[in-house]
# Entry
Amino acid sequence: MNDPFSPENTQDPASPVLRAEDLRCDFLTVEGIVYAVNGINLSIGRAEIHGLVGESGCGKSVTSRAIMGLLDRKHSRVKGAVFFDGKNLLGLSERELREIRGKRISMVFQDPLNSLSPLETVGRQIAEAISNHYDLAKDELNKRTAVLLERVGLHPGAAKQYPFELSGGMQQRVMIAQGISCEPDLLIADEPTTALDVTIQAQVLDLLKKLREELSLSVLLITHNFAVVAETCDRVSVMYAGYIVETATAGEFIRNAAHPYSRALIDCIPRGQGGGAARQPLPVIQGFPMRHYDRPAGCPFAPRCPRAEKACGELPRPRDLGGGHLVLCHHPAGEAPAPEGIPSPKGAV
# Structure
């Protein structure tokens, strides 16, 4: 009998596991149209941890839900293309999406206690995620559940517990076990460490890296924490007002962020004041994020950018700075000094 959990290997290992092209997401509201995602391009490599970074409301979670087909079709409009395994996910029916969702692409949400049912044991919920796609006997389901719990660092006996009996970190591990239960090609992790203390946060991130190695798992890691990016991600894309304004390898990004918004975010990271140096106030980004009811004719960051010029009245095209470093800016910064003292997640606050 073939192992139902063996990798399908239907994709070229050198090709992206997922590629979004000109992805747009609008919402119809009583106040007008909300332009949440504005024509982004995003590519996630096989066995890559790709960070999607930005402030609250920039479109990160909407992007992930558009990929998963979880947006309300009645009140939203999704355009563009999301290619996975040679198929455009946006052109599939709900029935076809259910064959992929949870099996080939799965998702871990930000708040596990709201995502897990309080009325069922965690073991039963993990088993349900498997049985949605595979017809296995009860004994085999229980065995598979125990293996998954051990894989994420929990005792198999936790299968008999309810979510409210577990700590926040243990709940998040259960969510990850549920997410990898069918050994997907891509795991989307939406702010998986936000509600956790720094010690448990580091453990969860280490777990994601370990699973990436064991399962050749690709991860889209949505976060606002640059310490997480520096410690965990291979590549990073920065979102602002529904646009991806910069994409680079994590190391290149931390050293040489080229977009003014990216540079400003990195400059806002607190750093130690050694040697009795006088405390310096943290820099701030002037102004306010643009309203999503307004689609700008030019660069969305121009009203807040200290380097804005007349040319910024037009939307810039992505520029390739070499090595896959792309930036959406008319005049990206040149070589920037490497910031010092980027905290790791183990010491982040």
About this structure: The mean pLDDT is 86. Residues 258 and 332 are 5 Å apart (CA to CA). The domain at 15-104+186-258+285-294 is CATH 3.40.50.300 (Rossmann fold).
